[in-house]
């Protein structure tokens, strides 16, 4: 599956996608910057489990030929942990192999960890066994949910780190996403929704990936750590129709306008 998605930036410069050394990913109010260069990046989605490893090279090559710079994918929790504590990263679930294939084609990656991903995927990507955890309330300031969410997010991030896949390590991952389209339901949880968003943001930046984190469709994406390190900021992104017209813009003048899903 290939969907057209745009990262909006206000300036651009030529760049080469060779790897093997650390590439600082930063940003300002104009755009993302890689190696200090302001870039206009076009992104498309290829979800690794919706195809086979044999198909990945062709799909990625076609995306590159179509002018794509960044491949976006979710991390599918329910697919990787169908039974509590039993993980599977083989075959079409081999997310590391997929990201390395993207890297081999000279493209970047935006890894949308969630763990709620929507994506027209059963249970929004949450594993079925999670439903049976005593006292759990999904996507809220709820101890059992946060315990299991944190465990999964840490597992994914640590896997990426161990494989040196973040741009800060010389890899292709230039952005990561925590949660997904949460603002639409946040008010239903009253104050627990806001507390959950702040907790999720703190979890993300505390993992110290060396690349920026985003929150999709979360205008109030918080900055949980207030210092001069830009990796402690959450970039709120637009998701939907006509973001160029309807998007209220970043919630800080020091953040760029990013458009993670362009619905057509």
From TrEMBL:
Task: List the GO biological process terms.
Answer: carbohydrate metabolic process
Residues covered by the Glycoside hydrolase 35 catalytic domain = 31-264
**Catalytic activity of the protein:** Hydrolysis of terminal non-reducing beta-D-galactose residues in beta-D-galactosides
Going by the record, the broad EC class of this enzyme is: hydrolase
InterPro entries in the cross-refs: GH, Gly_Hdrlase_35_cat, Glyco_hydro_35_CS, Glycoside_Hdrlase_35
Identify its protein family: Belongs to the glycosyl hydrolase 35 family.
The GO molecular function terms of this record are: beta-galactosidase activity
List the EC numbers from the record. 3.2.1.23
Give the signal peptide, or none: 1-16
For this entry, the protein name equals beta-galactosidase
Q: Which domain of life is it from?
A: Eukaryota
Keywords carried by this UniProt record: Glycosidase, Hydrolase, Signal
């Amino acid at each position: 599956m290939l969907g057209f998605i745009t990262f909006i930036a206000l300036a651009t410069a030529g760049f080469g996608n060779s790897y093997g050394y650390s590439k600082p990913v930063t940003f300002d109010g104009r755009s993302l910057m890689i190696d200090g260069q302001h870039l206009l990046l076009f992104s498309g989605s290829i979800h690794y489990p919706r195809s086979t490893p044999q198909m990945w090279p062709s799909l990625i090559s076609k995306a590159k030929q179509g002018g794509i710079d960044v491949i976006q994918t979710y991390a599918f929790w329910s697919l990787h942990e169908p039974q509590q504590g039993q993980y599977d990263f083989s075959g079409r679930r081999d997310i590391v192999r997929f990201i390395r294939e993207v890297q081999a084609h000279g493209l970047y990656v935006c890894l949308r960890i969630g763990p709620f991903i929507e994506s027209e995927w059963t249970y929004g990507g949450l594993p079925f066994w999670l439903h049976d955890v005593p006292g759990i309330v999904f996507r809220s300031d709820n101890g059992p949910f946060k315990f299991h969410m944190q465990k999964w997010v840490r597992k994914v991030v640590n896997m990426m780190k161990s494989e040196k896949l973040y741009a800060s390590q010389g890899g292709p991952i230039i952005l990561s996403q925590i949660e997904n389209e949460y603002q639409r339901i946040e008010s239903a949880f009253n104050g627990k929704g806001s507390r959950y968003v702040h907790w999720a943001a703190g979890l993300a930046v505390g993992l110290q990936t060396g690349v920026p984190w985003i929150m999709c469709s979360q205008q109030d994406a918080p900055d949980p750590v207030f210092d001069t390190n830009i990796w402690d900021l959450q970039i709120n992104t637009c998701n939907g129709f006509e973001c160029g017209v309807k998007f209220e813009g970043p919630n800080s003048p020091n953040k760029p306008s990013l458009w993670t899903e362009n619905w057509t």
